[in-house]
User: Fold this.
Amino acid sequence: MAEETEFAMGATASCADGPAGRVRRVIIDPATETVTHLVIEPKHRLGAGRLVPLDLVDATAGDIRLRCTVEEFGRLEPAQETELVDEVAGDLGLGGLNAPMEVASPVQAIVQDVVPLGEAEVGRGDPVHALDGEIGRVQGFLVGREDHRVTHVLLQEGHLWGRKKVSIPVSAVTGVENGIRLSLTKKQVEDLPPLG
Assistant:
């Protein structure tokens, strides 16, 4: 059996010369079922999160090490982009005043996650949907160490059977839009063995 690496959301990642941050999201290529990037956000959200290509990631026993320095990490592509949008304030037709009033246009910042074209993002706490309803929340993934293919989705179940962590084979995943969709029922997921 091929070795697998666990990418748990919230796991700590470090650079060769210091801390990098925590794993916030995983970027997946749905066509090949491979993880392409980890989104790592600096500790205490100081600075922008970065898209870290998987070829810079070494993960062993829950320890995620990046093959780059803190400075190189800071130069990786940002995981979010901010766009400033002017809200246009129209004339305020007050009473019989014909002269348009000057109103300062507030500027609004819109922050969007960066996801490479054709790929999908999955984050901690995204819903997992069985055929008959929501079953739990994403906890992380098991990924083949050599080929970066997702082998299992780690699910944190709660409300129905007491809290347990379950690994769901990727063959049961039918989609990753607005959460993860499964080809299993709640009962079939309940019957899966709990993960250590």
Observations:
- DSSP finds two helices and 16 strands in the chain.
- The longest strand covers residues 18-29.
- The helical segments are 70-74, 186-190.
- The CA atoms of residues 132 and 195 lie 23 Å apart.
